Amino acid sequence: FTVVVEKATPTSKVLKVVLKNETLLVLKPSADKKTYVVLVNSTAVSVTAHQPHLVQYRPTNFSVVYLYVTEHVQATPVLWLYVKNLGLSVVYDGVNVYVQTKLPLYHGRLSGLCGTSNGEYSKDLVGPEDCLYEDPLDFVNSYGFGVTFPSPKGPYVCPPGVSPHYGNVRSMISRAIMMEETLSEDEQVSEEDVVGPLDVDEESLESRHIILERANRICVSTEKIPICKPGLEPLKTEKMMKGFICLRKKSPQAKAIVKQIQMNQSPILFADGTPEPNYEQEVDVVTTCM
């Protein structure tokens, strides 16, 4: 089987599952927060908490996909996909995806799009610049899209003369090409113009509160920060110091705020105005997208 997660919007994902190279299941976020519509080889199936489904994906009796939904008081309903004979279990809520293999029969290759490898060090954790990472999150970030990923937290080894790169390589190349073309069109650009404040391309941007994780705390920016609209990637960024409100990660208030931000709602924490930040950090603020 193959599991692929695709970004639908900045706060939602589409999940595609291919079984035995014959059956394609497409899982999309719930539109009404009650029903999930699953496409089984282009045929739509509606799944709710009161209407589970069984899908026969091959002629054999054991080749069955179980689809069902569980409801939760303060969270979005969760769609479960279970293929018993393959040992595949998938949990999906439109934003987060959890994949578990229950049978120890699979030998895979890390591609840069997978999870944490259960924290195990592996010779397969080699990034696109041939740097070997020990921390799985550093490895995943090395293949990341955008230019806001942090520097490696754990040990790493790179070939001579090579340093880890962060963010999407295509974005970096596009940014360099565009800057070179701009300078070639106007050879009289002064040094002051090059290093001065960047103009903000408002048509390609939208603003949202961003979330950082610090140890056992969740930190929410006290002001909305520009991000690229769906389908666009950062072209130019500017480092700026921003204020954050940090809360315990497991506190009900923190969980509620994260959910509200994912749903593009204003956090209840800011209902009475902007609170004073209790943490500050320099972040990359997007000014131009492409």
Automatic annotation (TrEMBL):
Record domain VWFD: where: 1-152
Domain of life, source organism: Eukaryota
Protein name as it appears in the record: Vitellogenin 2
Organism: Alectorobius mimon
